[in-house]
Design brief:
Layout: H1 3-8, H2 17-23, E1 33-36, H3 40-53, E2 56-61, E3 65-69, E4 77-80, E5 90-92, E6 114-115, H4 117-120, H5 137-146, H6 158-163, H7 167-173, H8 175-184, H9 194-198, H10 205-221, E7 244-247, E8 250-253, H11 255-272, E9 286-290, E10 292-295, H12 305-313, E11 318-323, E12 326-331
Parallel strand pairs: 1-2, 1-4, 4-5, 5-6
Antiparallel strand pairs: 2-3, 3-9, 7-8, 10-12, 11-12
Length: 338
C-alpha cells in the first residue's frame, strides 16, 4: 500500500459547519472589515465576502508589508488567507502551521480566533505534512458560508476557482488527498455549493484545459514584467515597499497597480458573478507597516522540535511550513501591528 494511502486510513471524518458557526460567529456577520493576502486567493476571498456579506476590504498583508486604512486597527479586521498568531486578531488561513502535535506550544491558544482546516483536523508537519489542506482559502470559505447562505457557484467560475493557488495542478497530482479533503468539506452533498465546483458535469478534461487556457491568456494580458496580473506586489525581496507611495493622507497603492488589479478583479467578477464594488476596497489613505520576514533555509536552520520551539519563542506574527524542510515566518519588527 502506498504511503499516502496508509496515512489516509481511518481519516474519514467530516467538518461540522454548525460548530464553526457557533465557535466563530464573526465569519457569518455582515459588514466586517478584512485584510487580504494580495494574490488571486485573497482577491477571490474579498470579492466573495464583499458580495455575500458586504465585507469591506481595508488593507493587504504579504508577510513583509501591510497597508491598512487609516483609523482602522488590525484587531478590528479579519485577515483572510493567512493565520495571525495573536489572540485578539481573527483570521482564516489554510497553511500548515503546527510542527508536532505531541509537542504543542504552550501559547497555542493564540490561534483561538483562527479558522484553519489543518488545525481543525489536528494535522502537523512532523507526521502528516503530506495530508495538509490542498485547496485554497476561497474553497474553504465557500463551504463555510454556503452552510448558512443558499447560493450556487456558476459554471463560469470554475476556471478561476481551479486557477487560484494552483488548484488545477493539485487535483491531479495529489488525487487521494484532494478526494479525502473534499469528503471532509462535504463537497458531495447537494446543499453544499462546493458540489457545483468539484462535481460539475459540464467540463471534460479537454474543455477544462481550454477554459483554463483562456483564463491564463486574460491574466497574461494584464501582466507586466516581474508582476503577474493576478497579484498585487507590495514588497520586494529585501522588504522594501513596491507599488506604494506617500501622499498628503498617508500612503496609497500606485494608480497603475490598482488599475491592473481592478482589471483582474473585473475578470473574476464576470466569471463568478460576485460584484466588485470599488467603494468597498481601500486603495488610498493607508497606514504602512513594515515587518521582518525570514525562513529556516535562509537562517540555515533545520525544521525540528527544538528550532520550532525557538521560533515560537520569537513570538512570530504569522508563519507557514512551505515544505517539510522550510518554514517562512514574520516578526513584528521594526513595526508592531498589535
Amino acid at each position: 500500500m502506498a504511503k499516502i494511502q496508509e496515512l489516509l486510513q481511518g481519516r474519514d471524518e467530516k467538518i461540522d459547519y454548525g460548530e464553526i458557526a457557533s465557535k466563530f460567529p464573526w465569519i457569518l456577520e455582515k459588514k466586517q472589515n478584512c485584510i487580504l493576502s494580495p494574490d488571486s486567493d485573497g482577491f477571490l476571498c474579498g470579492l466573495f465576502m464583499s458580495h455575500f456579506l458586504d465585507w469591506k476590504i481595508k488593507g493587504f498583508y504579504d508577510g513583509k508589508v501591510m497597508v491598512l486604512e487609516k483609523g482602522i486597527l488590525p484587531s478590528e479586521c479579519i485577515f483572510l488567507d493567512m493565520e495571525i498568531f495573536r489572540k485578539d486578531i481573527k483570521s482564516v488561513g489554510h497553511h500548515m502551521v503546527l510542527y508536532n502535535k505531541n509537542s504543542r506550544p504552550e501559547n497555542w491558544s493564540n490561534f483561538d480566533n483562527c479558522i484553519q482546516p489543518n488545525n481543525l483536523r489536528d494535522y502537523d508537519g512532523y507526521k502528516t505534512f503530506r495530508l495538509k489542506y490542498p485547496l485554497a482559502t476561497i474553497h474553504f470559505l465557500i463551504g463555510i458560508i454556503g452552510s448558512k447562505i443558499t447560493f450556487k457557484v456558476p459554471e463560469t467560475a470554475i476556471p478561476a476557482l481551479f486557477f487560484t493557488d494552483g488548484t488545477f495542478n493539485v487535483l491531479f497530482k495529489y488525487p487521494e488527498n484532494v478526494l479525502n479533503w473534499l469528503n471532509y468539506l462535504r463537497a458531495n452533498e447537494e446543499s453544499n455549493p462546493l458540489k457545483d465546483v468539484f462535481e460539475n458535469e459540464k467540463y471534460s478534461v479537454f474543455s477544462l484545459m481550454k477554459a483554463m487556457d483562456e483564463f491564463f491568456r486574460k491574466r497574461d494580458e494584464i501582466s507586466i514584467k516581474n508582476e503577474r496580473g493576478d497579484r498585487l506586489k507590495i514588497s520586494n525581496t529585501d522588504g522594501s515597499t513596491h507599488n506604494i507611495h506617500s501622499t498628503n493622507d498617508g500612503y496609497a497603492i500606485n494608480k497603475d497597480a490598482v488599475g491592473r488589479i481592478e482589471q483582474f478583479m473585473k475578470i473574476l467578477a464576470q466569471l463568478t458573478g460576485w460584484s466588485y464594488v470599488r467603494d468597498s476596497w481601500a486603495w488610498a489613505g493607508l497606514d504602512l507597516y513594515k515587518f521582518t520576514k525570514r525562513d529556516f533555509q535562509r537562517d540555515k536552520s533545520r525544521v525540528n522540535n527544538h528550532n520550532y520551539k525557538e521560533l515560537i519563542h520569537k513570538n512570530p506574527l504569522s508563519w507557514a511550513m512551505t515544505s517539510g524542510k522550510n518554514i517562512e515566518y514574520t516578526l513584528e519588527e521594526p513595526d508592531i501591528m498589535t
